[in-house]
Amino acid sequence: MKKEMGAKTFKLMIAGLFAISATIVPVTASFAAGEALGTKCTTEGESTGTKSTSLVCKENKSGRLVWAKVKLSDSNLSPIKPLRAPRGSIEFWHWRAEDKAIFDKIIADFQDLNPGVKVTQVISNSSDYTNTALNKVQSNPKAAVVTTFRGSQFNQAATAGLLKDLSNEQFAKRNVIKSMMGAGQYKGKQLGIPYQSLFNNPVYNIEIFKKEGWKLPKKFSDWISYCKTAKAAGYVPMAWMGAFRPQALQIINSSLMNTASTDAQLNAQIAAIDTGKDAITIKWVKDMAEKYADLRDAGCFPDNPKGVTEAAGNTLFATGKSPILPTGSFSMGGIVKLNEKMDGNMGLTGFNFTDDVNARYTGITNNTFILGINSKAGRTEQRIARAFISYLVNGEVATAYANGTKQHVTVLDVEYTDSNLRNTASIMSERLVLAPRFTFLNQGVRDILEDALIAIVGGETVDKALEEGAKLIKQKLG
Amino acid sequence: MIYKVGRAFGLTLFSVLILIPVLVVVLGSFKGDLELMTKPLALPERWSFENYRNLLEGGQIANNFKNSTIVTLFSVLLTLFISSLASFGIARIIHVSGKVLLLLFTMGLAIPAATSIIGIYQLFVTLNLTNTLHGLVIINVASTLPISIFILSAFFRQIPTEIYESAAMDGAKPFRLYRSVALPLSRPSMGAVAIFLFVITWNDLLYPLLLITRSDLKTLPLALIDYRGEYAINFSMIFTAVMVASIPMVVMYLAMQKSFVSGLTAGAVKG
Amino acid sequence: MSKTEAGARKGASSRPQKSGPRGRLARSNDRAYFLMAIPALLVYALFYLYPTLTNLRYAFSEWDGLQEAKFIGFKNFTRSLTNDDTFYKVLGNNIEFTGLVVIFQTALSLLFAIFLLKNTRASVALRTLYFFPTILSSVSVAMVWQFLYEPNLGPLNVFLNSIGLDFLALNWLGSETITLRAVAFTQVWFHTGQMMVVYIAGLQQIPQELYEAAEVDGATRWQQFKSVTWPMALPTTAVVMAYTTIQSFRAFDLIYAMTQGGPNNSSSILVTLIYLTAFNEYRFGYAATQSIYLIVFILVLTAIQRRLLRTRY
């Protein structure tokens, strides 16, 4: 049993590392000149990329770290070419307005490849998408390609039988990194392809850290002393944005990741909260909540923390008033838009909420964007959708998507050329876990817990915030 | 004296309260984001039309504008016609059924749209009315009928009975009473209702959100939501979109207001 | 004949004429008048009442909006009342929000209507200005005020701090005690101009002679207001208040875009709660039940308002 957990942890770690290692091709190339199958290596989990031929550093049977070939996909065969689509038109539903232009290009190429095919993007903003998309697509035969958020929305779609099973699709076996497919699985079936991967870890201002001579905090007490030092130096230690829950609670991932000693236990304890078996006044949640109070008391957060909007938080960081933006890799593009000088001046760092530098996990990864086929769509439409998804998981297409949108993807054989994508070297050494925030399947429960944590940052006592939250959850589930 | 000072103070304060946000938006649309966030009230360091160029590129917002115009125009005209006819009827019905009808319609006022969106969506799917502009017109008319009838029937009841009586003595039938007596008299109130409807329909987000997914059919508020999704942290672009969406409205309002105000002041009271 | 009809109309509310030539005429006209209401009735019944009634069906069920609904009797209804603090909190918010908005919006719009009643050039210009926010969409207004209200960088607090009013520079959208009021303020800002136009339309129908007569009697402005403007404007006030009340329930767009009901549901009103219950938590049945309570709540409010204003409807 224990061994199995270890293997699972290891797999997750590898998964995260692979996604990242691909982003630092030059770095890897520089210090891994001697890497070859079977030769000695130094850092466990180090990899040479996400190619079908990539190597990873892992322990062999005799306990030595060597470069090994790791099967990234679910198959020994190389990725398949995109499938052909029958004539017809479909809609592609998603919420990523910022990806529209690059998808337009990809779709144009796809349509050139498949004469008589038309793919129309249907884009709503993310909160509307969360709220109404599933309802809308189930009665819309044209809405064949449907994206879902990881967690509650995907789960909702899966239980309702809205997503076609992709388990037997060749592209789902051969084109994507198998260990990063977890977010698209439901009861053993692959119902969707998590397409994009993100790193929900604090972004830091490299220049300020260098100028002030600070070291990146490695454990919780480091963070507390960092906050005090930074505050004394006149900075807002963390540009935390309490008015916007989705971003404010990115750090809940980091605070959750080491609250249990195994993944199974973590999942179980979150499920117990989720279903009402345990109240949020339980010890492990309380311990976690105390950390938020500690951070608050150390002056980590801005004034009026609960009122800070996303735009204001980003501005604090982009103007150098705050050296840390506690959101994730997805914020970096926006920061560069605000202030060009920040390009190349940002790194990602893990947020370790324990005082153990060797804690099980030190960083977060996530895939939000799960591509699926609407099983209620027309038959031809579903075939077009299948061809379209097989096209998206083609290495070249995914490369265009990744570099065009400045996001990492879960597809094999992708070359990252964008500087922001490669500029994540600092998180390379972290042990990453799939964002545990989305293990909560009941959004209502998660919102209440997160509101309680936000209230604590805003000045509420831990006990009162959790007790009130526990009561609300009980009522919600009762 | 106290009145005059109070009036001046009140008017100035409210003017400032409106002008400042307007200024922030207007100036912000010519600034970059960082400048907007750090110096929101200052004049732009350099007047840049880049936001506008980015926004107008591709003509999408022009298309949204067209959709909004079509939907609003047809919705308002249809609602005005149907509801004034009904209001007049209701105001004139002597039997208790007139009261029942009015109650039935005004009950609709008590039903906020957000409570019935699932039902509306399913009905419109069944009738194949989603992703059509006429579907949008239909739901706009249906949902603005209660408020129009509520207001109009109140006005129709204020018209002195004697006016109808003299026309009825000349042998005028109900529909002619409506057309040649009631309608001309109610011009000011119809104008007021028209402005209401115009504003409600033009601003409505809920129904387009519910029924329209095709980007070529999106109305302005729905498009604004998209821009908000696209530029969530990019306030200068959002403000630019607000500007582009509002400027033509301001012009239209000014044009409408003249006839509206003169319509109000002229004859109505004496008639 | 004319007297007959006038008499019939006066008695209409209580008792329709049953016999005699006068009654027959009234009835036959009634039929024609009723026909006039038919188009409106059809559109309204099919596209508005019917979808709303489907609420009733779902209120008695557990339904996630996707799978089959499961009938559970009155469980949702008892639960809202006996075991749901959020529901009560939001109900309280709704009462406060509607109260604030109705009182301030009605008072301010009447005040400004009186201030700007005369069609002088300045008045017309100011009316145009005051009406201006109305032509913006709720989303724009929400975005603009979200920007203005930001506590550390937002123009409002920057301004208040710069003139030394630091104590007024509050955490507008981030405080459980202030946010609802900040949103209510925005709502009033948003719609006062619109209601002012309604009032001006109403006030301009008050015969000028009444004021002239009052002035001859030496009445002060306040006395003129009390004896002429207020009573004569009562029907308009009824319309304004009724409309403002309903409008306050429509603030969904504004609240949703500004705060999503937060922090911690402190700026949520019933409509936002219903929307979030249905679409965020996929509890359509429970949301339908909340809608029915909302409808009851509004009916009670409307009844109270009518009684207070003693309107003639």
Could you explain how this protein is built, in words?
The complex is a heterotrimer of chains A (478), B (271) and C (313). Chain A is α+β, with helices and mostly antiparallel strands. Chain A has 3 domains: 2-72, no CATH class; 88-198 and 366-410, 3-Layer(aba) Sandwich (D-Maltodextrin-Binding Protein, domain 2), CATH 3.40.190; 203-365 and 428-477, 3-Layer(aba) Sandwich (D-Maltodextrin-Binding Protein, domain 2). In chain A, 42% of the residues lie in helices and 12% in strands. Chain A has helices at 2-21, 25-31, 100-113, 126-137, 152-159, 170-174, 206-212, 220-232, 245-248, 251-257, 263-274, 283-297, 310-318, 332-338, 379-392, 395-405, 419-422, 443-457, 462-477; strands at residues 55-59, 65-69, 88-94, 117-123, 145-148, 185-186, 189-190, 193-194, 196-197, 203-205, 324-325, 346-348, 363-365, 370-373, 408-409, 432-434. In chain A, helix 18 (443-457) packs antiparallel against helix 19. The two termini of chain A are 35 Å apart. The model of chain A is unreliable at 1-33 (pLDDT under 50). Helices cover 76% and strands 0% of the residues of chain B. Chain B contains 13 helices and no strands. Chain B is globular and about 70 Å long. The model of chain B is unreliable at 260-271 (pLDDT under 50). Chain C is mostly helical. Chain C folds into 2 domains: 2-59, no CATH class; 75-309, MetI-like fold, CATH 1.10.3720. Chain C has 13 helices and 2 strands. Chain C has helices at 2-12, 20-59, 75-82, 85-115, 121-131, 138-149, 155-162, 179-203, 208-216, 221-249, 252-258, 270-279, 284-309, and strands spanning 61-62, 70-71. Chain C has a two-stranded antiparallel ribbon. Chains in contact: A-B, A-C, B-C. The interface between B and C is large, with 108 and 103 residues.
Order of helices and strands of chain B: HHHHHHHHHHHHH
Helix share bin of chain C = over 70%
CATH architecture level-2 label of the largest domain in chain B: Orthogonal Bundle
- Main sheet summary of chain C: 2 strands, antiparallel
Number of domains of chain C: 2
Shape of chain B: globular
Mean pLDDT of chain C: 83
The CATH superfamily of the largest domain in chain C turns out to be MetI-like
* Amount of helix of chain B: over 70%
Structural class by secondary-structure content of chain C: mainly alpha
Question: Structural class of chain B, please?
Answer: mainly alpha
The radius of gyration computed from the alpha-carbon positions of chain C, rounded to a whole number of angstroms, is 24 Å
- How many H/I helical runs of chain C? 13
CATH superfamily of the largest domain in chain B: MetI-like
